[in-house]
UniProtKB/TrEMBL annotation:
This is Phosphate-import ATP-binding protein PhnC. The gene is phnC. Its EC number is 3.6.3.27. GO terms for molecular function: ABC-type phosphonate transporter activity; ATP binding; ATP hydrolysis activity. Residues 243-264 are annotated as: Disordered.
Amino acid sequence: MLEITNLVKRYGQNEPVLKGLNLTVEGSSVVSIVGASGAGKSTLLRCINRLVEPTSGSIKLNGHELVNLRGSELRHSRRRIGMVFQGFNLIDRLTVMENVLSGRLGYVSFFQALTRRFPQSDIDRAFSLMERVGIAHYADKRADQLSGGERQRVAVVRALMQEPEILLADEPTASLDPKTSQQIMSLLQSLASEMSLPVLINIHNVTQARMYTDRIVGMRHGQMIFDGEPKDFNQDALDAIYGGIESPEEDAGEPASPTEEASA
């Protein structure tokens, strides 16, 4: 279970990007975070995995506080948090299998990582997960030879190789065409159920949030102003979150601020 309490993130003397946010994610639920660009969605996810340092507040994963961790304790905690990025973050010159196995780097010795000598159990698990998402036949193919949807499936499997206790996805469909976007969202939904894994997705596409997630969290100006089931996400909620303008129905990336990019 993820428990966030009174989370604040401020850059310098500027107005906080996150303003005392409270959120709990548990079980195998798939939770989407929606809101206009600049609402704080990406900052929230990056605070959870400590790519961005929270200013104050508490973030607990299955009872373990994450905010004050440093050094090896922080590295170990990150093994428990899977992350899927908008830009895939694959190493193009490596094969699919090598990219997938990089999800085990936090579990093997420096020598094993340097020589890419992973235990057979890791290799077997990698093949099993790749078969599950339909990319096992690409195991020896370079990552830069794949389509966007295939690359994102590799990124999902890499995250699952960490054996995470929660999966975070930051605009996982923003770089994909509509059909592939739906396939990736459906895959995340299925994996959450199969693995009893909570999934937290930052997404612009409201239609997909309604279709593929169990719960929608709406943010505006660093605050949570809606938290409920998709069936309750009505026009009033849309107006409150997007300020009365038409909500986005197609994915579009949320540009990170320069400060946020530097922190990452």
